[in-house]
Design goal:
Beta-Lactamase, alpha+beta, five-stranded antiparallel sheet, single chain
């Protein structure tokens, strides 16, 4: 199938009334669809905004939990800083007091004192004066020296142990100089355990990182990420560059999520950040579900509207239009009794059906009047033919006959041979005129038709075809009575005569048959030849004329008397023309 054919079929489809109704409905629905879609998109944006707010609140709640832990550590360190003098560090402080304090705060793993130079002076897990441990290189210790305030950071207090989250606070002298730094350590496993107490949405991700991108806590899979530096991960890059925001980005595991992140804010510098991420499929599921539901509803409404147009239009409109078109086609084919059969009512189609039926009734009446007039004209024509034939017979024929008789007498009385020859020559001319007059009489109105009957006239016509045209002709009759009105009888005889002449002139036939038979209330006269034949035009249209009385003329005149003409012919196989007319009741 070519593209041109497809386009033509598409054009024909959209040129149909049903398709145009559907397009009209779509044009009417499109603004509603656009408005509804715009509203749904706005609602989706609001729903997404609500989801982002929820994620942000979850992150802030998680931050609050961590900030409470940090604030608790800060308060412990402040109280400890006020309760002792670093110059009086004793063994019982390291082995007794600090251990007792650590026992009260079970979440922490170590507590101790560091000199301003970074040496570990005392801790719950080491002995005083252990100078093998120096923490001057730890970033969180350096920040304490810079800020003279509370700070937090990750690192190892004692070599060989696990990395911990360390909180530090300085002990200042009256002049504001740092005398010592007190610290509390929190094991990262404890931090993850504390984090797990935060209620996270399903498939969510929680991360706590330091300023240098080290993961302090992570859910899920803490054993996979805790303690590792992940500065190149997209979410970590976003946190370190923005500090606080809500955005869609890939997490530690590469899964895209909607993340909300915020720094941990305490009385001092913590340089810690927490973030919570929800998978985008979960975050936007409700908003997308509402949008899809509304779109499906709109699609169903549109489908129902189109189905209503398709089937309802067929029931209420197209069937009536098809009835009108069918009635118009039947009327154009000659069926004057064609009517729409529709109820009129007050609708436009009802008015159109009423107007069409009234027009068809008027045309039927006019056709009836024309047929009546044609019948009367045919009868008057036949009567005029009979009158002319009678005049020719009674006057011209008689005059010619008397002239022939008188010329015969004159010939007998003539004395010279020359005179007799001249009279005989004139007498022969009159004899030829008498024969021509008789032939003309039969052509105008055959006396046999009215004196001996229609079948006898057809038999005479067969004999004339054999004599004049050299055809092997014969007449067949079923011997059934066939009473005919005078106008129909004359019409059938003239038509049969014209068909015989057509066979003689155009068919190049050798054999001819004229068959008359009765069929119910009709007479059928068939003129059959074995000539060259011809292709019958579709629908019987396009018939030509021959000698002024062609097949078209015969068909039309038969139609005026409720008769028909049927032609059966093929090239090289001869022709059968059947005249059918009603018998007299």
């Amino acid at each position: 199938m070519t593209a041109v054919t497809i386009r033509l079929r598409g054009f024909r489809f959209f040129s149909s009334l049903r398709a145009r109704f559907g397009l009209l409905v779509l044009v009417a629905i499109i603004p509603i669809l656009l408005l509804t879609l715009s509203r749904d998109l706005a609602e989706r944006e609001l729903a997404i905004s609500d989801v982002e707010d929820d994620v942000q609140r979850s992150a802030q709640f998680a931050a609050v939990v961590q900030e409470q832990l940090i604030e608790g550590a800060r308060q412990v360190l402040i109280a400890l800083a006020k309760s002792f003098d670093p110059a009086e560090i004793r063994p019982d402080l390291c082995g007794g007091t600090l251990v007792q304090i650590l026992a009260e705060y079970t979440r922490f793993t170590n507590i101790g004192v560091i000199s301003p130079t970074g040496d570990l002076l005392c801790s719950a897990s080491s002995s005083p004066g252990d100078v093998s441990v120096n923490l001057a290189h730890q970033p969180w210790f350096q920040r304490v020296l810079e800020t003279h305030d509370f700070t937090a950071g990750s690192g190892k207090i004692i070599e060989g142990t696990r990395s911990t989250l360390n909180f530090a606070y300085p002990r200042l002298d009256p002049h504001g100089r740092i005398q010592a730094v007190l610290f509390l350590s929190l094991d990262l496993d404890q931090l993850n355990q504390l984090t797990s107490e935060v209620q996270l949405p399903e498939n969510a991700e929680f991360i706590m990182i330091t300023r240098n991108g080290v993961v302090l806590a992570c859910l899920p899979d803490p054993e996979k990420w805790v303690g590792k530096s992940v500065q190149e991960v997209p979410i970590v890059k976003a946190i370190l560059s923005r500090g606080q925001d809500v955005m869609e980005v890939a997490g530690l595991d590469g899964v895209g999520r909607l993340y909300a992140f915020t720094p941990l804010r305490a009385s001092g510098d913590t340089e810690l950040y927490v973030t919570i991420g929800i998978p985008t499929s979960t975050a936007y599921a409700q908003a997308n579900k509402g949008l899809v539901r509304h779109l499906v509803q709109l699609g169903l409404v549109t489908l129902v509207a189109l189905l209503a147009v398709w089937f309802g239009g067929d029931i209420f409109i197209l069937r009536k239009i098809k009835a009108l078109v069918g009635a118009a086609k039947r009327l154009s084919a000659g069926d004057m009794k064609s009517r729409t059969g529709l109820a009129y009512g007050s609708s436009e189609l009802g008015g159109l059906a009423r107007a069409f039926d009234e027009m068809a009734e008027s045309l039927e009446q006019r056709a009836l009047e024309m047929r009546t007039l044609a019948s009367q004209l045919s009868l008057a024509e036949e009567r005029e033919r009979r009158r002319i034939a009678t005049e020719l017979h009674d006057r011209v024929g008689q005059a010619l006959a008397m002239s022939k008789i008188h010329l015969g007498a004159l010939r007998e009385t003539s004395k010279s041979p020359e005179q007799k020859a001249a009279v005989e020559q004139v007498r022969n001319l009159i004899e030829q005129a008498i024969q021509d007059t008789r032939s003309l009489l039969f052509r105008i109105s055959s006396p046999i038709l009215y004196e001996l009957g229609f079948e006898a006239a057809l038999e005479w016509l067969t004999e004339q075809a054999q004599k004049q045209h050299g055809l092997d002709a014969r007449f067949e009759d079923d011997k059934q009575p066939k009473p005919l009105d005078d106008d129909i009888r004359g019409l059938l005889f003239q038509a049969a005569n014209e068909l015989v002449v057509n066979v003689a002139k155009h068919a190049h036939a050798k054999n001819l048959r004229i068959v008359a038979r009765r069929e119910e209330g009709f007479i059928l006269v068939s003129v059959i030849d074995d000539g060259v034949g011809f292709e019958v035009p579709a629908g019987g249209k396009g018939w030509g004329r021959a000698d002024g009385f062609g097949l078209f003329s015969i068909r039309e005149r038969l139609g005026f008397v409720n008769g028909t003409l049927r032609i059966e012919s093929r090239k090289g196989e001869g022709t059968c023309v059947t005249l059918k007319a009603p018998l007299k009741p």
